[in-house]
Specification:
The protein is α/β, with parallel strands linked by helices. 47% of the residues lie in helices and 22% in strands. Strands 4-3-5-12-6 form a five-stranded mixed beta sheet, with helices on both faces. Strands 10-7-11 form a three-stranded antiparallel beta sheet. The protein has a two-stranded antiparallel sheet with strand order 1-2. Helix 1 crosses helix 2 and helix 1 (7-19) packs across helix 4. It is flat.
């Protein structure tokens, strides 16, 4: 078996030490918990070590795992430094054909980022943004790894070791089809009624789902999990249950009466936040995009 170092496994180990959860560590890398568990087992088999102990309380590092995680932090820092240096060496290229790697969560990517990029390219046509559309947790991972120089997330939970700037806000709405009993209510829904209902929700790691669960102060009952806003809206229209979504996605359906917004007592406002690595100055194109986002987002 190859004894080459697996950098993703080392990043997983560092995230596991930071979070204390294999699922959370996997989400930072944009992989599922089963995939994270398989990567950890493969690493242990390759190096004939036991680096984590699994129990009903979660996954914790062994003393060997703690030692390897410390080594990994130093190594990954050097890898990221080399990656940043390679990018800097390519900075002599002309603006023509200059890539700008960006990550954005779904609402921003669909409804806001195209306008921001359009304004950027109107003044800098040689900039070619390369956008990865993922959930908020995966945006964080792409920015931390250096694969993207700038990220946009839709959650209030942002790690303290990344730079951030709030560029706007979004107030989610709760929607149902017109034949749903809630569509005829004249008074706001009680929290107890919301806890009894089954909702269409986004996947774990989504800023939309995080905002809803924090406002509800509980995990809702779930009728369906969707990985896109379009799928959520379609499921609501098909009678799968109510959903909490960005108003940008349902404005036409609300205007035509295909969906109805229901009143409730939850605070569903969330910040839209730009994030980037603290240890790297934003390149000029990324800084220009950040200024546009901040100006137009507000």
């Amino acid at each position: 078996m190859s004894r080459e170092l697996d950098l993703q496994a080392l990043r997983l180990l560092v995230h596991l030490e930071d979070t204390g959860s294999l699922g959370a560590a996997g989400r930072r890398l944009g992989i599922s918990q089963p995939a994270a568990s398989a990567a950890l087992r493969a690493f242990e088999t390759r190096w004939q070590l036991t680096i984590a102990e699994r129990s009903a309380r979660g996954t914790l590092l062994t003393p060997d795992g703690t030692t390897v995680a410390a080594w990994a932090r130093d190594l990954l820092h050097q890898v990221d430094t080399v990656r940043g240096g390679l990018r800097a060496l390519g900075a002599h290229r002309s603006q023509e054909g200059h890539d700008l790697p960006i990550a954005a969560s779904l609402t921003i990517a669909e409804f806001m980022l195209p306008r921001w990029i359009g304004e950027l390219r109107a003044t800098q046509p040689g900039i070619h943004p390369r956008v990865q559309v993922v959930n908020s947790d995966a945006v964080d991972s792409l920015v931390r790894s250096g694969d993207c120089v700038l990220g946009f997330v839709e959650t209030s939970i942002v790690a303290t070791d990344v730079a951030r700037r709030v560029v706007g806000s979004d107030r989610l709405v709760m929607v149902v089809p017109p034949n749903h009993p809630w569509a005829r209510r004249s008074t706001p829904l009680l929290r107890s009624q919301l806890l009894e209902a089954e909702f269409v929700v986004r996947e774990e790691g989504s800023g939309t789902r995080d905002t809803f669960e924090r406002a509800l102060a509980a995990q809702p009952r779930i009728s369906m999990v969707a990985t896109s806003t379009t799928a959520m809206v379609g499921a609501v229209q098909a009678g799968m249950g109510p959903a909490v979504v960005t108003p940008h996605a349902v404005r036409p359906a609300l205007e035509t009466g295909e969906l109805v917004e229901v009143s409730h007592g939850l605070d569903l406002e969330r910040p839209l936040t730009a994030i980037w690595r603290k240890d790297r100055a934003l390149e000029p194109a990324a800084a220009a995009l950040l200024r546009i986002a901040h100006r137009t987002g507000r």
